[in-house]
Amino acid sequence: MALATLTARPGHALRGIIRAPGDKSISHRALILGAMASGVTEIEGLLEGDDVLATAEAMRSFGATVERLGEGHWRVIGHGGFREPAGIVDCGNAGTGVRLIMGAAAGFAISATFTGDASLRKRPMMRVLGPLAEMGAEFICREGGRLPLTLQGGGLKGLSYRLPMASAQVKSAVLLAGLNAEGDVAVIEPEPTRDHTERMLRAFGATVEVDDGPAGRVILLAAGQTLKGTRISVPGDPSSAAFPLAAALITPGSEVTVEGVLLNPLRTGLFQTWREMGADLTIANERDAGGEPVGDVTARFSKLVGVAVPPERAPSMIDEYPVLAATAAFAQGQTLMRGIGEMRSRRAIASP
After folding, report:
1. Has 319 been annotated as catalytic?
2. pLDDT tens across 202-226, in order?
3. What pTM does this model have?
4. Which residue is catalytic, options 51, 237, 296, 319?
């Protein structure tokens, strides 16, 4: 029997301009907040992957009108709240989607049963269910807080909650539930995490206060706020943009530009690390899109050197360590990556 062979040959220089797919984290939030709001929300650049499409279908289950108008162009018509679903809400493999949706649903006097695919049903949900229960939500679930589970919302009270670990999902779930709580909600972070929810809440008309103090970052959402539909332009996902940029950095003669990349400082740790490694990385056409900083990122072939990545940078690049490892293999010297133990736990409990 002949053995199959695979031959690899050096490639040519990479040159061109591309656009990254829409950011998944922001796509989820745009659909959920659009469904919670009153009126029409127009979304451009929505990522149309399976996880986000599962969230879109879930929003239909909760009573919102969700329409695809074209590639990446969606319209959500919300009615100022969630209605009780007629059936089970299937979130597929969307870990971010189900955790944020549970937080949103907890604020309304409805009962909803959530499930997902085999992978999602293995992931524990207690990080989110714990603070929601402290606010007054009730739930029945499998051992360890696993799906399928039924959540009974409504009648929530305000809460001051200190995150036991850095988690944008838990923070977001508490803030979304807090929109319909009787009393203010404060979330204290030991270290800053992705702030897409705070930024997008402001885009939908809510007032969110953020204060950095010696005890950590405090996010305060006052009671009695409502959301109004708006226009959201979803920036390009920096995790997706990292791959063509990395290819340009390690391929002689290359120059690649990725347009419309999200430049939120809590998501650009990889770019900062690359620059420390000596990467020729430039940003042009910086602008604002839906409350998020955006720009066009150009990478050129560079002679890289190894660096030590500080542990406090991990939250801003937790999804990009694999592509950093690929570029580090082409660098001169040793690259140390500290503070990435969370990657193991994230694979077990969450996606970003």
Report:
1. yes
2. 999 999 999 998 888 999 999 889 9
3. 0.89
4. 319
